[in-house]
Design brief:
314 residues; Protocatechuate 4,5-dioxygenase, Chain B; single chain; two-stranded parallel ribbon; 40% helix; eight-stranded mixed sheet; 19% strand; alpha/beta
Length: 314
């Protein structure tokens, strides 16, 4: 058995050359290519992936802190494929039983919908999203109230302890952030169709999705042109987060507050919860050594674009 870690930012406008410089596009592509080589060389038998959602698969009709998928399909948002994902059902159920015995009452789904927050990183690396078997674990990173950082870290640890018993090459993966302030919306102030969507009460048509995606691009264009209505990126914060993950500074992460993180680095900055869970899972299996740590701020993409990969130390 062997273990590895791969975490990457996502943004629905990744590689959009109208919203970033050629240098930024090249840097992001280079980092994804490097991570793709890392994953290919590791050759995982199983990926356990922690990811967020953007009201495509989960809604305020019932919003869990955590949910494990025993079966899943991709949402097909942002021109990504809409397919059934290769989820090994029995492994997923065994993982669920393990974490429940460890006092995590995690929800279960047999119809989990994975949006770009789960699948885009694989598309960026391989041009396909179903290359490897995957057990997806949703973490609520954008619909307050959010789980605490300490609780997420402990869940990651429990997942790692399960993986340690498998006779498999397991890759722990995560996507999200880093500093990141997309126009997600706030259920307390949302009105009309936006509120209905957050409540999961409407089925979004292709036209609705196109309008919403055009709105995101407009926000990105404003920032790229030096104006805009959203919070600027926080590269210093992003660099610190990457360093703390590389060092395994769980004491630092346990003290973070989701409300304060949003105020400092944006409405979706708490997507780093996924990275923390994946890194904690890796740490439960073995001390780790970082082999890739890349970062490029991309204001027009509304994201600090980071990559972090690690192998077992020693």
């Amino acid at each position: 058995m062997s273990f590895a870690l791969a975490c990457a930012s996502h943004t629905p406008v990744m590689f959009d050359g109208e919203l970033a410089s050629a240098e930024t596009c090249a840097s992001a592509r280079s980092s994804f290519e490097r991570m793709a080589r890392f994953v290919s060389e590791f050759e995982p038998d199983l990926i356990i992936e922690f990811g967020p959602d953007h009201f495509n698969g989960f809604s305020y009709s019932l919003m869990p802190s955590f949910c494990l998928g025993a079966a899943a399909r991709s949402a097909g948002d942002w021109n990504l494929p809409r397919i059934n994902m290769p989820v090994p059902e029995q492994t997923a159920l065994d993982l669920l039983d393990h974490v429940r015995r460890d006092d995590f009452d995690i929800a279960l789904s047999y119809s989990m919908v994975l949006d770009h927050g789960f699948v885009q990183m694989w598309d960026c690396m391989f041009g396909e999203i179903d290359r490897y078997p995957v057990v997806p674990i949703f973490i609520n990173c954008a619909a307050p109230p959010l789980p605490s950082y300490r609780r997420v870290r402990m869940l990651g640890k429990a997942v790692g302890e399960f993986a340690r018993k498998l006779d498999k090459r397991v890759l722990f993966a995560a996507s999200g952030g880093l500093s990141h302030d997309p126009p997600i919306g706030d259920i307390r102030t949302a009105k009309g169709g936006a509120r209905q969507r957050m409540l999961g009460l409407v089925t979004e048509t292709a036209e609705d999705q196109a309008v919403r995606e055009a709105r995101v691009r407009e926000f990105g264009r404003e920032v790229h042109e030096g104006r805009g209505r959203i919070m600027p990126l926080n590269p210093d914060w992003d660099a610190m987060i990457l360093d703390m993950l590389a060092q395994g500074r769980w004491d630092f992460f346990d003290c973070l507050d989701p409300v304060a993180v949003s105020a400092k680095s944006g409405s979706a900055a708490n997507e780093i919860l996924c990275w923390i869970a994946a890194a904690a899972a890796m740490n439960a299996c073995s001390p780790y050594r970082v082999v890739q740590q890349d970062y490029a701020p991309a204001p027009g993409w509304i994201a600090g674009v980071g990559h972090l990969a690690a192998i077992e130390a020693g």
